[in-house]
Amino acid sequence: MNAYIITAHAVLSVICWGIVGLGATVAVFSPTVKDTTAERFALAAIAIGAFATACRVIRQGWVSEGGLFMSAALAFYVLAIAVKHWRGEPSTLPNDKTRPGDLRNEDGSEP
User: Fold this and answer.
1) Count of domains forming the chain
2) Is residue 51 classed exposed, middle or buried when 0-12, 13-18 and 19+ CB atoms within 10 A define those classes?
3) Helix (H), strand (E) at residue 18
4) What is the pTM (predicted TM-score) of this model?
5) Residues 12-44: pLDDT tens digits?
6) What is the mean pLDDT of residues 69-80?
7) In a domain, 93, yes or no
8) Other C-beta atoms within 10 Å of 58: how many?
9) Which residue, 19, 28, 55, 86, has fewest beta-carbon neighbours within 10 Å?
10) Would you state the pLDDT for residue 52?
11) Which domain holds residue 20?
12) Counting Cβ atoms within 10 Å, is residue 106 exposed (0-12), middle (13-18) or buried (19+)?
C-alpha cells in the first residue's frame, strides 16, 4: 500500500478512537446520564482503552483495516448518541430503571 494511504488510515483511526474516548469520558462525568455504577465503570474502561489504542496507533504508525473499521463504527455510534442527547429526545426508559415504564397511548394520553 501507498505510505500516504497508510498514514491517512492511521490518522482517521486516531481521530475515531479520540471521539470514542471523549464520548465515554463525557458520559462518565455527565450528571444528566442516568447510569448505574457498573455502567460508569464500563464506560471508564472504554475511555481508557480507546485512548490507549489511539496512542498505540500513533506509536506504530499504522492500523489494520479491521481496526480502522472498528474505530469508525464506534465513533459513529458515539456521535449518534451525542446527537440524540443534543436534540433532547425523550428516553424510552424510566429515570430510575427499576420498574417498567408507564403504558401510554400513541397520542400520549393515559389508557
Assistant:
1) 1
2) middle
3) helix 3-29
4) 0.73
5) 999 999 999 999 999 899 888 778 888 889 999
6) 91
7) no
8) 14
9) 86
10) 94
11) 3-87
12) exposed
